[in-house]
Amino acid sequence: MASSIKISRLISRSISSASSSTLFSRGGNGGYRGGLLAKYSTAAVVDEQPIKPLVQVEHIGLLIDGKFVDAASGKTFPTLDPRTGEVIAHVAEGHSEDIDRAVAAARKAFDIGPWPKMTTYESKR
To answer: Burial level of 69, CB count in 10 A (0-12/13-18/19+)?
Structure first.
């Protein structure tokens, strides 16, 4: 809340110290886009066109040991498209058995794989 008050004060000072030609100066495209009002505007443009392409989920399993696998229990949960509220996939629901498999795979990769031989710089890439 405090940051929005600071922004409002900044905009008020900028607008009150500006001349009307600065406030409404025309941009290069012929619209009123170059002035302070356009620069500090909080108005949003609403576009009613549907977003394309539709969401496509490729992987719905748990990533364990470099492979996408189903949950040990076989359970899934729906994942919703936040734009429409429609179900876009049923994703694997991991539980303690899945966590144990993932931790064991990570431990194996760290102990036997290339990770222990890497420098910090190499492992960050």
So the answer is: middle
0.70 exceeded by the pTM?
no
Q: Are 84 and 70 in contact (CB under 8 A)?
A: no
pLDDT at 115: 78
**Cβ pair 96, 104 in contact under 8 A:** no
| Single-letter code of the amino acid located at 67 | K
User: Is the CB of residue 94 less than 8 Å from the CB of residue 68?
Assistant: no
Average pLDDT of adjacent 10-residue blocks, the chain of 125 residues: 57 54 49 52 61 73 94 93 86 96 93 84 81
Find out whether 40 and 14 touch, Cβ atoms under 8 Å: yes
Give residue 56's pLDDT. Answer: 77
Going through 1-125 in order, the beta strands assigned E by DSSP cover 62-64, 67-69, 76-80, 87-92
d(CA 91, CA 97): 16
Q: What are 34's two structure tokens? A: 């170059």
